[in-house]
Amino acid sequence: MGFALLVQGCQGGAPVRGAEAAPQKPVEYRIGPGDTLNVFVFNQPDLSVTVQVRPDGRVSTPLVENMPAAGKTPSELGRDIEKVLSEYVRTPQVNIIVTGFVGTYSDQIRIVGEGVLKPQALPFRNGMHLMDVMIQAGAPGQFAALNRARILRTENGKQTEIKVRLGDLINSGDTRQNIAMQPGDVLIIPQSRF
User: Domains, the chain, ranges and CATH?
Assistant: First the structure.
């Protein structure tokens, strides 16, 4: 029963307090360390490869070494690789397809607190809500104080705190608690006091 409510909560519902203030603008995906990229060079199968972005944020492909990738959109990286390849190939056309998502650190959603079994970071996706975060994160700790959870959000250099009754969302299906997440949000789940 609880899982059915959990899935239903992800499908939307009534607007959440504070969420109706401004519509969420689309966020263009930025490549981060650990992402897996398919680099496709049109009509050049020998130059088309799958690479992982290194911890230093760079990638290397045939004829292109140590190209900065982290923080760029896939289109921006494709244009940068085209510039280098144009020295070797006439009018190269490069498409970058991200197949393994991690994202930049500033775009990740972090889940921390004493009520969390394992702190973790999740890649942000457009349209992501609190319930989506909980489904990806898995079960909270046994003694989690779900109704004392809060989200720390930084906008325009100013940090705000949004209190959420996560227990009401998960256990009672209160979709008013299913707020829209933003890149860089930190969900804190404290432990119950005994």
Answer: 2-11+106-188 (3.10.560.10), 36-100 (3.30.1950.10)
